[in-house]
Structure formats: structure tokens, C-alpha cells
Recover the amino acids of this structure.
């Protein structure tokens, strides 16, 4: 819930009786009530338009209504209230609540623009929530993977317990994959940025793409040549293309048809980007990737929710494919537009900023560690999660290190002050209450400018990390990590050995 609390838009949750389950800081401020005063009380108590509330609430309970909007008075102020019904499988109805200022009399074009902007804000709020969940989830997975590996290492090779422990590790890695997709949606995934030829990337995927398409569906390519580059992570851009083609193939599976992939480039002005894509982007040249299908299409409600995490219309699937694609595109300062009509197909159009052409580069491969390597000395381990500290301590001990484990930045500074030069390296969590990982890193550097620090986090903020590397950060380790990940990085940092 602390992630919701950080969202700048007034939002909260109600139970099936209209009582407040949660109100973020912005909503509490808007209503003029502290959270404790709101919790458990009917929202209608804070409205002066009780009749309007009753009408909106009754409409939301209807079988066909999952989202209701109404303009109601809270105290002396008129607000636009959005209620969105959610029905978790393991509990009763929960209603998500969004509050915004009402707009003045507007024409249809202005209303459409406002709707796009508000939809963008709603998706950003969901991204904040998804990123926070994934971050906390990754902390838990460090504990699961670390303890599973420690348990396996303590068993004889012929122990029957090894098989169920291996299943635990495999399940945790699948969970880590889900977490990575949630972070991609939140725009906080791990990226390796390089120049990419968009048409060439699609062309290289043709054989794989055709294998995803049913025999009764045709794939047409209309790929422009000599386009500028886009800058992005090639693996994640492939994921975007795969997700779009997979959805198009599913839409065409029953009746057949054609899926067309187009690429091109053109200049866009800021007003056009905001009006057409609901995105506040800089004017300039943008490359576009368009996936057009002749499938079953989508109604308005489905089209509005397709980028929500875990929303899916399929019998199988997790509902994270398009959510992750949206996060990848937004992190690359691009935009996406969806046009669809039931029975008449769907068109996805992605914009990505064009970059100057230059030779394509490849990042160096990750180091591979020989199994027998062990280190020595003391590692200063700083993490506010006890589960992570215990798991990481076991891993570091197994590698030959002594561990000084601290639960916050202040403890770490105090230890480093009392033990100057004793830490061979620091393994530091980026997101901690109180003294943050960034502040702790800077304070440690003031004590010892030569100190080596590995920052670790369940999410990767490219702008922050770039600044930290300029300030002398040694390395970054993404959570969840396994023993081999930790061992490979420590060996490279402490011995200076090149990747093998």
C-alpha cells in the first residue's frame, strides 16, 4: 500500500458496501481527512450529493457495468468520481476509486483528449503499483532462491530431498520472470540500450513469427528500408513484436485472415502526439511499427483494459504480455495507439523516437564463473529485509566471506566508521526507509573514497544508476539473484578477472 500512497492522483479502494478500505495521501488530502478517519467509513459520508452517489453505486452493481463515472460534490467542491469494479477470485467485490477535477463544457474533440490523458494517468498509477509489488516480490525471491540453494548444497548428492528443492528453485525462477514482466510494465526493467534497425529486427524474426500463426492466417510484411535507428534493448523489442503478433494470431485463429506488419518513419508535433496517442512527447521524427489484423476485434471495455496487468480474455495466459510491452515502449519514450472494432479487426501502432544512424554495437557477454572460486574478507551487507539478509549471508558465507549484516543505512555508516578499511566490498540495497541506498553510498564514499560498493535492487532506475556510476559505484546486481550471479560478479569485481 505504500506504493499507492506515493501516487500523485487521488485514488483508493472500497469494499462491496462502499466503505473505504484504503485511501492514498492525495485522496486523504482532497477529502480533508486523515487516512485513519477515512478507513472503514462509508464514502457517502463525505458527499453532499447522496442521490447522485446512490445512482452511481446502483449502476456499478449492475451485471454489465464494471466502470462508472459521475460528477458529485464532496463538501463544497464538485469532482469527477470514477468507480471501477474488481472481483478477485478469493474475496468479495472491491471497487477502485479515482477522483479528479471536473472539466468545463467541452466539445467532443476536447473530451476525447481529456479521456486519453486520464487513461494515461490511470495506467501510470497502475504502473506505480505494479513496480512496487514487483520490487517487494523480488526481495522475497532472493530469500526463496538463496535458501533453496543453501539447502541443496548441504545435502548429499543422492538425497531424495534434492528433487523437491530443485522444483522450488524452478518455481521461484518462473516467479522471477513474472516479476520482470511487471517491472517492464512499470518502466523499471533491466535494459541494455543499443542502436537497432527496426525493419531488420522484424525481418530476422519472420521464421519465428510464422510459427506462431495458424495455417489459415497469412502474414504480410510492409517494411520500409533505410530507416533511422531506434535505441532500445533488442531482446525486449523482440518481446514487444512477439506479444503483438501472438495477440493478432489469437484474434484470427477462428476465421483466418491476414496479419500485416508495417514499419516507417515520419515527423510528429507535440500537439499531434497528445491528441492521437495521449502522450506528452517531444516533437520530432518517430519510427512506427504497426500490426494490423483481420480478427474478431475488441469492444470498448476490452480495449480500455488490455494494458492492465493480469487482464486477459484468453483461457490461458497471465495477462502481462501487453502490459509489459506498454512499459517497454514508455521507457523508450515512445507511445502506442490501439484501434479496434468488433468483427473488423485490430490495429496496434507503436511510435519510437528516431536516432541518428551509427554502427551497431554489441555489449560484452556476461562473465562465466568457474565453480570452484572462493573469496575472502568481510562483506558489509546492508538491506532492510531480514529475509534477504539471511539468504545473502548464507550465500556469502558459502563463498568464503565473513558478513557484517546491517538493517539500514545508519547502522552501515556506524559500522564503517568503527571498522575503517575492513570491508572488502559493500552489498547495498538501493531502496530502504530512512537513509536510502543512494545516501548511504555517498556517506560511505565520504568515509573511504576507495570503497567498492555493489548496489542491489528489485528494480533498475537507469537515470539514477548512470549518476551513481559516474560517482564511483562499482557495479549493480539485480534482484532476485542466485548464488552463481552473486559469485560471478564478486569474482570479477574483487579479482579484476575478465569475463571468461
Amino acid at each position: 500500500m505504500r506504493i499507492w500512497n506515493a501516487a500523485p492522483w487521488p485514488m483508493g479502494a472500497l469494499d462491496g458496501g462502499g466503505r473505504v478500505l484504503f485511501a492514498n495521501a492525495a485522496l486523504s488530502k482532497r477529502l480533508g481527512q486523515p487516512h485513519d478517519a477515512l478507513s472503514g467509513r462509508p464514502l457517502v459520508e463525505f458527499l453532499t450529493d447522496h442521490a447522485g452517489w446512490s445512482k452511481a453505486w446502483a449502476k456499478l452493481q449492475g451485471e454489465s457495468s464494471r466502470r462508472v463515472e459521475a460528477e458529485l460534490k464532496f463538501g463544497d467542491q464538485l469532482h469527477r468520481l470514477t468507480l471501477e469494479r474488481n472481483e478477485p477470485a478469493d474475496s468479495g467485490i472491491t471497487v477502485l476509486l479515482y477522483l479528479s477535477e471536473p472539466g468545463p463544457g467541452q466539445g467532443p474533440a476536447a473530451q476525447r483528449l481529456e479521456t486519453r490523458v486520464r487513461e494515461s494517468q490511470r495506467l501510470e498509477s497502475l504502473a506505480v503499483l505494479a513496480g512496487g509489488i514487483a520490487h517487494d516480490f523480488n526481495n522475497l525471491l532472493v530469500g526463496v532462491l538463496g535458501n533453496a540453494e543453501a539447502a541443496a548444497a548441504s545435502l548429499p548428492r543422492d538425497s531424495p530431498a534434492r528433487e523437491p528443492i530443485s522444483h522450488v528453485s524452478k518455481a521461484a525462477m518462473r516467479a522471477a520472470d513474472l516479476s520482470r514482466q511487471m517491472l517492464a510494465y512499470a518502466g523499471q526493467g533491466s535494459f541494455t540500450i543499443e542502436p537497432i534497425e527496426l525493419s531488420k529486427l522484424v525481418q530476422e524474426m519472420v521464421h519465428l513469427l510464422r510459427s506462431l500463426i495458424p495455417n489459415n492466417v497469412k502474414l504480410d510484411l510492409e517494411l520500409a528500408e533505410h530507416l533511422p535507428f531506434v535505441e532500445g534493448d533488442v531482446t525486449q523489442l523482440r518481446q514487444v513484436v512477439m506479444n503483438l503478433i501472438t495477440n493478432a494470431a489469437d484474434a484470427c485463429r477462428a476465421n483466418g485472415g491476414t496479419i500485416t506488419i508495417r514499419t516507417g518513419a515520419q515527423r510528429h508535433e507535440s500537439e499531434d502526439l497528445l491528441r492521437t496517442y495521449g502522450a506528452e512527447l517531444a516533437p520530432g521524427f518517430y519510427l512506427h511499427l504497426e500490426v494490423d489484423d483481420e480478427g474478431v476485434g475488441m469492444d470498448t471495455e476490452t480495449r480500455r483494459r488490455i494494458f492492465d496487468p493480469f487482464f486477459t480474455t484468453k483461457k490461458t495466459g497471465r495477462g502481462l504480455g501487453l502490459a509489459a510491452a506498454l512499459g517497454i515502449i514508455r521507457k523508450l519514450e515512445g507511445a502506442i495507439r490501439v484501434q479496434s472494432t468488433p468483427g473488423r479487426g485490430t490495429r496496434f501502432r507503436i511510435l519510437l523516437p528516431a536516432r541518428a544512424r551509427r554502427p551497431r554495437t554489441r555489449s560484452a557477454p556476461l562473465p562465466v564463473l568457474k565453480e570452484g572460486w572462493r573469496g575472502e574478507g568481510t562483506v558489509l551487507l546492508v538491506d532492510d529485509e531480514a529475509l534477504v539478509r539471511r539468504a545473502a549471508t548464507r550465500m556469502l558465507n558459502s563463498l568464503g566471506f565473513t558478513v557484517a549484516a546491517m538493517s539500514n543505512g545508519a547502522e552501515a555508516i556506524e559500522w564503517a566508521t568503527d571498522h575503517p578499511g575492513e570491508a572488502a566490498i559493500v552489498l547495498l540495497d538501493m531502496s530502504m526507509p530512512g537513509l536510502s541506498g543512494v545516501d548511504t553510498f555517498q556517506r560511505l564514499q565520504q568515509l573511504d573514497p576507495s570503497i567498492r560498493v555493489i548496489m542491489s535492487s528489485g528494480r533498475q532506475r537507469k537515470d539514477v544508476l548512470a549518476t551513481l556510476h559516474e560517482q564511483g559505484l562499482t557495479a549493480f546486481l539485480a534482484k532476485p539473484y542466485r548464488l552463481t550471479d552473486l559469485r560471478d560478479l564478486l569474482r570479477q569485481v574483487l579479482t579484476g578477472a575478465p569475463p571468461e
Summary: The first strand starts at residue 11 and ends at 14. The CA atoms of residues 322 and 415 lie 46 Å apart.
